[in-house]
């Protein structure tokens, strides 16, 4: 069942399964997109303020996106993203950490310009094995309204 | 020459070279991290509100990170990131677009807890071939202060 704009309410929470971050993935992603010593070089990372190799923040966001899209947006009529806000890296993500995502609906607003669209703001929280939040952000998205004549 | 915290001032702007986004890269990144139809399926993308294939917003952020880290942070004593704010996707990024980054220093604040660190807030703007901003965000980072006894 596809959830349309009308089916989402503030307080709704969607939870994903876990994904274990592997060391070689951390290094490979960072070599492509964020080649700072503490992301790509184990010895240099030991001497960094993190005391060891950590994932690029954008890698963590990308993994959160993977979980969110594969396990949540597959059942939401998501039309696209508008932006993000209040993105905080609460804790470093290290090799072997298993991450999962909680996606909470914060606000829903019908579009005034496009009768077939609404805007949905979520808080996306990325948690580790011990349920500590490692990353949080707000994201604003565009969601299709239920087509006329279509009932639940 | 490494730029330390003391060498960065509000108004400083660093500009990177350009990077041309290829269609297969858009699809490959999105298949891994953001497998929504308008990022991975050309036919479905035609029918989306974007009218064609567009890059995942996180892919655009990752490419901006690549340019920023390779061409700017290589000469700044960057110790890590703290978070981001006010991230806006102004325009879709499409295959063949050539992106470059402007990184502007907005604010610098010495750390009260760590005498060897300061916090630097930047605005990161991603621009296309025609100098239109496609993505903008603020990022807060940790930068090393100039070691004692070391002069410019």
UniProtKB/TrEMBL annotation, chains A, B:
Organism for this UniProt entry: Natronorubrum tibetense GA33
Top-level taxon in the UniProt lineage: Archaea
Protein name: Acyl dehydratase MaoC
Pfam family, one: MaoC_dehydratas
Family matches, as InterPro entries: HotDog_dom_sf (IPR029069), MaoC-like_dom (IPR002539), MCH/BMMD (IPR052342)
PANTHER family: BETA-METHYLMALYL-COA DEHYDRATASE (PTHR43664:SF1), MONOAMINE OXIDASE-RELATED (PTHR43664)
Annotated MaoC-like domain residues: 10-112
Signal peptide: none
């Amino acid at each position: 069942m596809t959830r349309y704009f009308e089916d989402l309410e503030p307080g709704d929470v969607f939870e994903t399964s876990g994904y274990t971050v592997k060391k070689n993935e951390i290094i490979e992603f960072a070599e492509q997109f964020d080649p700072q010593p503490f992301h790509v070089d184990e010895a240099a990372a030991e001497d960094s303020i993190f005391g060891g190799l950590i994932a690029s923040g954008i890698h963590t966001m990308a993994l959160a996106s993977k979980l969110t899209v594969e396990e949540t947006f597959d059942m939401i009529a998501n039309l696209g993203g508008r932006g993000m806000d209040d993105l905080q890296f609460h804790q470093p993500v290290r090799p072997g950490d298993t991450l999962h995502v909680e996606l909470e609906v914060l606000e829903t607003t019908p579009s005034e310009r496009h009768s077939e669209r609404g805007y949905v703001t979520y808080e996306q929280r990325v948690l580790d094995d011990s349920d500590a939040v490692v990353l949080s952000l707000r994201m604003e998205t565009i969601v299709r309204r239920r087509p006329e004549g279509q009932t639940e």
